[in-house]
Amino acid sequence: MFMAATIAAAFTVDDPIEALQIGLTEISKDCLFAEGVRWALEQSPTDYQEAFDLTWKRYAGMFNGSAITNALHVVMRLKIGNKDFTRTIGETVAISGDNDCTGATAGSILGAIIGKENIPKHWIRPFQGRMHIYLNQLPEYLEIEDVCRRLEALAHRFNLG
Questions:
Q1: Cβ atoms of residues 54 and 76 within 8 Å
Q2: CA 12, chain centre distance (Å)
């Protein structure tokens, strides 16, 4: 719920920290997850190693792929990245944990904030406008713009946008 709310908010704000703070409003303020996110927002690491050290000093013994530590990885790397798309994803993936998910989540949040036109072309060009999928009875690749149009139509159908 937190990440979904944060990504949705990212389309409406100019700052990833603001999107994260909005995301916090959608979960219980007293839960361990929210406590961890608030803690991560208070930290000021300068690189992934410092963020890693801070995280594991506080959450020693917790599984490195847990929802909490993954969220902390995203939060601190969005701060470190300072709206630099490549740096944000690089710092997020470097921290370890469930780094394919954390990198994608940080990229989703920042991408929504900066907009498609501001994502460096080397992140987009290799996909050639398509996405690879693994769904039975569908083609192996779908056109990204077509998927976006279909999602937009569903949002309108269900009065979500």
A1: yes
A2: 15
Measured between alpha carbons, how far is 140 from 142 in angstroms, rounded to an integer?
A: 7
**Nearest residue to 18 via CA among 154, 112, 94:** 112
Tell me the DSSP string of 46-60.
Answer: SSHHHHHHHHHHHST
Q: What's the angle, vertex CA 95, arms to CA 115 and CA 7, rounded to 5?
A: 30
**Which tokens go with 89?**
């994803």
Structure-token pair, residue 49: 């190693």
Phi-psi region of 54 (alpha: psi -120 to 50; beta: other; left: phi over 0): alpha
Tokens of 101: 């998910």
Cβ(58)–Cβ(76) below 8 Å: no
Residue 127 identity (one-letter amino acid): F
Residue whose C-alpha is closest to residue 72's, from 36, 103, 46: 36
Give tens-digit pLDDT for 3-41. 999 999 999 999 999 999 999 999 999 999 999 999 999
